[in-house]
Structure formats: structure tokens, C-alpha cells
User: Which sequence fits this backbone?
């Protein structure tokens, strides 16, 4: 399936589960998709990928979808339910390396927050009491950090123009 950042293309894969919330009239209020996790050739868990809701959806629609998925998967004996990462959001008391990586990631995360919402995504996911696992970034040399920062931005915002990037950075300072 490859690397995904919650796009609609992955939802077309028949192996992906989709959960939809509708109102009494059948209007779609929100949707989640779940990617399978495999071990030894069999599905042992599901990981949250796409989360989308209508702007006028009632409060709690996304919480309802995630909780409903968790309940169904628990009843099916699923071993692991993953809420995915919020990669540019930090949890209080996290380990630091002192080599500038945290500063770079904090800068990139701050610049992208208004567009992507990493920190609000982490706050949302924490409502469910997940086990938190650190993400590790391995890089050959601190000189590579600016290029890594650009690659992270491009992964999340592939169509971002230089003008838009500059506007985001200016808005941060």
C-alpha cells in the first residue's frame, strides 16, 4: 500500500475499511478509513488513515466514528487499533537530543500547524487514551536537517508553492 497521509486514493483499495456517519436523512457527516496491519500474512490490526467531516457536522462525529470502529474491532478480536501518528506534535516531557532536531521539527510543525493541524490532531487522539510510541528520525549529519525539513513539508503539502511557503513562515514569526 505504501506511504500514506490520509488521501482518498487509499480508500479505493478493497483492503481498506471505511466507516461513515450519516444523519437521519442519509447525509454523510463524517468518514474514517482504516488501513490493515499484517503479521505473517494475516491482518492483526487496523490503523486510522483518513478522517474527514462536514464543516457543519455536529460536535462529536469524529469521536463517534473512532469509538465505533474500536468497539467493532474489539468485538472482532482485532489485536491492535492504531490511531496513526501526529508527527510534528510533541508530547510534554519527551526526550531531547540537544542537536537541533527538536528545534527544526518545532519550527516546521509550527509553520504547518495552521494548514495541517498536527497539534490539534494529537489533542484529538489523546482523548482515546492511546499508548504513545516515539517516532524516530535518523539522519546522516546535522547538515542534512534543512533538506529533511523541506522533505517533511513536501510530504504533507506537495502542492505548496514557494510564495505560499514564505507566507506561512512569515505568519509564524
Assistant:
Amino acid at each position: 500500500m505504501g506511504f500514506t497521509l490520509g488521501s482518498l486514493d487509499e480508500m479505493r483499495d478493497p483492503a481498506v475499511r471505511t466507516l461513515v456517519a450519516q444523519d437521519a436523512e442519509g447525509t454523510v457527516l463524517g468518514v474514517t478509513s482504516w488501513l490493515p496491519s499484517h503479521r505473517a500474512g494475516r491482518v492483526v490490526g487496523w490503523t486510522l488513515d483518513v478522517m474527514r467531516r462536514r464543516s457543519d457536522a455536529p460536535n462529536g462525529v469524529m469521536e463517534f466514528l473512532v469509538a465505533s470502529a474500536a468497539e467493532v474491532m474489539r468485538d472482532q478480536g482485532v489485536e491492535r487499533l492504531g490511531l496513526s501518528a501526529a508527527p510534528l506534535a510533541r508530547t510534554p516531557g519527551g526526550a531531547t537530543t540537544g542537536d537541533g532536531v527538536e528545534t527544526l521539527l518545532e519550527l516546521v510543525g509550527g509553520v504547518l500547524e495552521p494548514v495541517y493541524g498536527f497539534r490539534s490532531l494529537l489533542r484529538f487522539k489523546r482523548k482515546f487514551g492511546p499508548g504513545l510510541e516515539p517516532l524516530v528520525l535518523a539522519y546522516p549529519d546535522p547538515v542534512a536537517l534543512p533538506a529533511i525539513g523541506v522533505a517533511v513539508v513536501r510530504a504533507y503539502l506537495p502542492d505548496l508553492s514557494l510564495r505560499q511557503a514564505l507566507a506561512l513562515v512569515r505568519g509564524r514569526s
In short: The helical segments are 8-11, 61-75, 101-116, 118-126, 145-156, 162-172. The first strand starts at residue 17 and ends at 22. The longest helix spans residues 101-116. The mean pLDDT is 82.
